[in-house]
Amino acid sequence: MKHVITALVQNTPGVLAHVSGMIAARGFNIDSLVVGRTEEPELSRMTVVVVGDDQTLEQVRKQLEKIVTIVRVRDFKEIDYVERDLMLVRVSAAPEKRAEVVELANLFRGRIVDVARQSLTVELSGPEAKLEAFIDMVRPYGIRELARTGIIAVQRGEQRNKKSEQEG
Amino acid sequence: MKTTAKKTKSYAGMKGADLFHQMLLEEGVEVLFGVPGGALLPIFDSLFETPIKFILTRHEQGAAHMADGYARSTGKVGVCIATSGPGATNLVTGLATAHMDSVPMVAITGQVTSALIGNDAFQEADTTGITRPVTKHNMLIKRAEDIGRAVREAFYIARTGRPGPVLIDIAKDATSNELKAEPNLTADLPGYKPMLTGHIRQVKAAADAINASEKPVLYVGGGVVISDASQPLGEIARRGNIPVTTTLMALGAFDESDPLALQMPGMHGTAVANYAIQECDCLIAVGARFDDRVTGKVETFAPHAKIIHVDIDPTSICKNVMADIPVVGDAKDILEKMLPLIKANDRKDWLEQIAKWKKAYPLRYDTGKKIKPQQVVETIGRLTDHDAIIATGVGQHQMWTAQFYGWRRPRRMITSGGLGTMGFGLPAAIGAQFGNPGKTVVDIDGDGSLAMTIGELVTAVHYNQPVKVVVLDNGYLGMVRQWQEMFYERRYSATVHPCPDFAAVAEAFGAKGIRISEPDELEDAVNEMLKHEGPVVLAVSVEPEENVFPMVAAGKSLHEMDMGRLV
Fold first, then answer.
1. Which H helix or E strand runs over A146?
2. Is the CB of A67 inside 8 Å of chain B's CB atoms?
3. pTM, 2 dp
4. How do the pLDDT tens digits run along chain A, 168 residues long?
5. Residue B113 forms contact with A (CB below 8 Å)
6. How buried is residue A40: exposed, middle or buried, by Cβ count under 10 Å (0-12/13-18/19+)?
7. Cβ separation A14–B140 shorter than 8 A
8. Mind listing the domains of chain A with CATH numbers?
9. Which domains does chain B have, with CATH numbers?
10. Measured between CB atoms, which of B195, B313, B315 is closest to A168?
């Protein structure tokens, strides 16, 4: 099972090494780990997608909270959230196939960001399932290069994360 | 959390090393263990005149274990210092030892000049990278202005919450430079919020479960020693007539002469402790973390029990064993809140059952022509009135010490429980002696463990610290040999080793050496050792193939104990 956890971290050297080291040392399985700046210059937000049961998720959450440079952790287990994954994919597209690929990209609300003689590059964002579906669709044309950011997530509207609130 | 320093004077223009020195004094550091080196020259220049007692150890590992022994025996933060590169890597075992056993320590390492970091400079190592998994927290300081805040934060993090070692790696130029601006002396740790007080609703739920139980057991770990919670623990046990088992880390937290004491649980625990855990209907874990050496096969651990888990570290809860009632917070705070809620109860049937097990399966050993190691430990216990500070190495001698000393008070047993660090005993004993001048400190060691750090005997002689070292010499790496005997058809692969004449080694180092091999010499030799006013090594040739029993083999359930030849 996949779970999304986000963590606000201090922008100090080594914080990423600390988090990835902890995850590796304790044998947790993760799908992705994304770090980016936030509205506050001294804080970054990490989004981690953890694979495992509820007990594993709970341990990951607590182990993250234990790291001194991590300010706040929340898991999206019981709350509604919006997730996005951003992908750039360069697809083989000879001139006679180009229109088909462009149409597929349009159907998925993707954007063509680069065109070359034998390929074109599509930018696509959305929940993970949508990206997977697009990859399946373009695979027959030939995928030359693919890069994804991994999931970032924020909650929908105003909600309280009951579990995290309880345990502080 | 924020703490503000008293601003008494201006620091601008001061050297980084002098600010560092000043900060150690403000944190109340009395003793500093370590070895100097190139990257530390500015710091040692500042320490040339200081009220802090600097102890030059013979190896940085010794410095870390001494700071550890000092911290465990006093409850204060132990401090050690090592230079960049090899100095820092030599600290690693000591840091990992302290980390596993939650010991408050601050380690300072020198680092190469900031401009050279990452260039594979002479004596450079990525110290923060290497030590990150074995410290509670660590930081790299490159500017003189940041030293003050770093020291404040390090001491605060080391001693609060679940204590642990914190490392500050300081670039050489940060200590040799003068401060260009007023330094930041305020700790600012928005992500560090240790939970100190237990939630009253959880405490009540725990008390209700205890009151409703007929066969409860208190399973007490090192957290009770760290938070000085022996008193409320004892009162709860006596009011509710609840038997208490104390883990290796908690020996002495509950007086073993009390009829409610079950002594140590687990792999080499007493039969009564293990049977009681397997039979109980309510297991109250306090400051213990369900280590595999305690639980045995975890699926069949305490199968009938409702489990209450009191711990200051939320990650310990539901990690190995699922807790029915978790209570996060400081053990002392929680036990004090719980005490008035515990109903008096004689629990007659349960205590009768406990007494039957105790009678049927006591800890015991045969005496023979040779000195038995258990006999040595018992003799030391009796002649020190069960009140000496005892350090140990790791192995058979450690288990016999745990089983036979007779623990009465907390902070007496100084031993590496989690990491199991051979060689810990002698330096830890020296550190404990520095923290407890005038008290008897005995290192009960094995020949294998002692050989690993025997160089620190020079340190004991150098500073005339009257530590007593008893080496139970059986000429084997005994615990591994025991497993080879029991599970590998007595194929003693790499566990047989010739030992030096440890008494002669002691004399060569400038300590006193005593050597015995006959049972009737034991009493006098221990007395002679205890009376001697300087460092002394008592080498005892013991029965070489004695085994530690009872024993729960790896992967077995606690009730499937091997009682040895004796039952």
1. strand A143-148
2. yes
3. 0.94
4. 889 999 999 998 889 999 999 999 999 999 999 999 999 999 999 999 999 999 999 999 999 999 999 999 999 988 899 999 999 999 999 999 999 999 999 999 999 999 999 999 999 999 999 999 999 999 999 999 999 999 999 999 887 655 444 333
5. no
6. exposed
7. yes
8. 2-78 (3.30.70.260), 84-152 (3.30.70.1150)
9. 2-188 (3.40.50.970), 200-360 (3.40.50.1220), 373-549 (3.40.50.970)
10. B195
